[in-house]
UniProtKB/TrEMBL annotation:
Keywords: Membrane, Transmembrane, Transmembrane helix. This is Lipopolysaccharide biosynthesis protein. Residues 75-96, 519-548 are annotated as: Disordered. The chain crosses the membrane at residues 37-57, 251-273. InterPro entries: Bact_polysacc_biosynth/exp, P-loop_NTPase.
């Protein structure tokens, strides 16, 4: 049977309880968990499509025209020094083309009342690799406006560059003229001195100084002539912008598809973040990892419904309980003591109650001498459920022996007829004033010792582990625990805490029995949909139409 453990010791059983998944299985499991947050994925798709549609409609109303300009090196750089032939910093020229000075000149050309910064926001200037060329791309609502803007910015850039070059030349010429002025005065003074001097020795020195000054003035005049002869042409327009024939933005269908793809990615990312920070248990794998114990069974959800007034399951639900019972029977740890504590982690005990009754019936069907002990002494409900079950007549045993006493257990075992499954004994619980004393009494210990007899099984129903310490008070004598929980309503921290409490008290978690809302005959909350009833399963005739009945001895 698939639920049996290997006979190699308790350590190997515990190691085998946590399955080792292959990488593809883990990926499939994670993807299935992401699909639980379909609303986040759908929201991401909607936002992506809306954003893509907005960008598509916005791009459909914009046109881009392009003007290309070649940049000619200027004879003088910004520091006043002559540049080497062919030397131009295209990065600096690109930043100049995007400057507010060029934008203001273009605004005057376009006769636009918009701020220069606003016009420059619609301009893109790029430099093709390995070229001395600038490409002006201007975007505007109409083709004509786009062409005018591109040409205006290119013309403004060239005019600004030409003005800058002329200004540099004038500045250099003015600097040379200032250097020449004192030399001219010195030359004239030396000429007068030569004309009035009569001594030959003094005349030679004056002539030498005069010749030097004249040569320096000649050099300055040559430099001025060279500067005035320099070509300050900044460049020329290679390609003039013309009105574009089609919008510059991508087509609307393309933007919608791109937006949907981006939306799916954002939705999956949001779902993954939600999954990471979600403390709830979502899959049986989460239960296994938190408990370090296997999932022994999963009760059908809403498809096989027991009758409202019947505790005994039928159809697929009964078969699931029988499967769990067989897995427990062949578990090495359970087989040594044949005791199991059926308990929920927190919340209602209704499903755990139904599970304990049906497991007792399943073990009775296997020929075991079963004793069901209801250890819920705070809110006992099994007696009331049996009163309302089909075929059960109210009897004296159903009356509690009086509130405010410790008189539990009373020592009476009530035989319960589970139809063709067989008969099991029940020790019902009732309210007592001192629950801890009642659970740790010698009478309870004697009842738990019932499982030591041959072919005997003890099933103990206790309140939620995280609500009361009753289950922990019993675990040192019952040894094994079966957790009954709804994976959608329990947290991973809760399961880990349950395992710590059980193991710390000297017991062991055999596994978990998972259920959904409405499974196992548990009353459904208002507004919950149970789905259409499935046809009865004829594969389990032993439970079909059966009801629990109290046998009168």
């Amino acid at each position: 049977m698939s639920g049996t453990s290997t006979p190699a010791g308790e350590a190997r059983v515990a190691a085998a309880s946590v399955p080792v998944h292959d990488e593809p299985d883990l990926l499939r499991d994670q993807f299935r968990q992401l699909l639980r947050y379909r609303w986040l994925i759908a929201l991401g798709i909607v936002l992506g499509v809306l954003g893509g549609g907005w960008l598509g409609l916005r791009g459909a109303d914009s046109y881009t025209a392009t003007t290309e300009v070649t940049v000619r090196p200027l004879p003088i750089d910004s520091s006043g020094e002559k540049t080497a032939p062919g030397e131009t910093s295209m990065g600096s020229e690109r930043r100049t083309a995007l400057s507010s000075v060029v934008a203001a000149r273009a605004a005057r050309t376009l006769r636009s009342e918009a701020r220069p910064q606003r016009l420059a926001a619609d301009l893109q200037v790029t430099n093709p690799p390995d070229t001395r060329m600038l490409r002006f791309a201007y975007t505007a609502p109409s083709p004509q406006a786009a062409a005018r803007g591109a040409n205006a910015f290119a013309t403004a850039y060239l005019a600004n560059r030409e003005k800058d070059a002329a200004t540099r030349v004038r500045s250099m010429v003015s600097s040379y003229e200032k250097q020449r002025a004192p030399l001219v005065k010195e030359r004239d003074r030396l000429a007068k001195e030569i004309a009035s001097s009569g001594k030959e020795g003094a005349l030679d020195g004056t002539l030498s100084a005069h010749s030097s000054v004249v040569n320096r003035i000649a050099e300055i005049n040559g430099s001025i002539s060279d500067l005035r002869a320099e070509d300050t042409t900044p460049g020329r327009v290679v390609t003039k912008a013309t009105p574009p024939a089609s919008p510059s933005g991508p087509a609307l269908p393309m933007m919608l598809g791109l937006g949907a793809a981006v939306g799916i990615g954002l939705g999956l990312l949001a779902a993954w973040v939600r999954l990471v920070f979600d403390p709830a248990v979502r899959t049986p794998g989460d239960v296994v990892r938190a408990l370090h114990a296997p999932v022994l069974g999963t009760l059908p959800r809403g498809r096989t419904r027991a009758r409202p007034r019947s505790l005994l399951a039928a159809g697929r639900l009964a078969e699931e309980y029988r499967s769990v019972a067989f897995r427990l029977a062949y578990d090495e740890t359970f087989a040594r003591r044949r005791r199991v504590l059926v308990v929920p982690p927190r919340g209602s005990i209704a499903t755990a109650l139904a599970a304990s009754v049906n497991l007792a019936a399943s073990f009775a069907e296997m020929g075991k001498d079963v004793l069901l002990l209801e250890a819920d002494l705070r809110t006992p409900s099994l007696t009331e459920r049996l009163r309302q079950a089909d075929g059960v007549q109210p009897a004296g045993w159903a009356r509690a022996p009086g509130h405010g006493t410790i008189g539990w257990p009373t020592g009476h075992r009530v035989p319960i007829d589970a139809g063709e499954s067989g008969v099991f004994d029940l020790v019902p619980g009732h309210r007592v004033s001192k629950v801890p004393r009642a659970l740790t009494s010698s009478a309870v210990t004697q009842l738990i010792g019932h499982a030591d007899e041959r072919d005997s099984v003890l099933i103990v129903l206790a309140p939620a582990v995280l609500s009361y310490a009753d289950a922990i008070a019993l675990i040192d004598r019952v040894d094994c625990a079966l957790l009954v929980c709804d994976p959608r309503e329990v947290r991973r921290d809760d399961l880990a805490r349950v395992r710590e409490l059980v193991v710390g008290a000297g017991g062991r978690v055999l596994g978990a029995l998972l259920h959904a809302e409405g499974a196992s005959g548990e009353p459904r909350r208002r507004g919950a949909s149970s789905g259409p009833p499935a046809p009865p399963d004829r594969g389990s005739p032993a439970r079909e139409g059966a009801a629990l009945r109290v046998m009168v001895r």
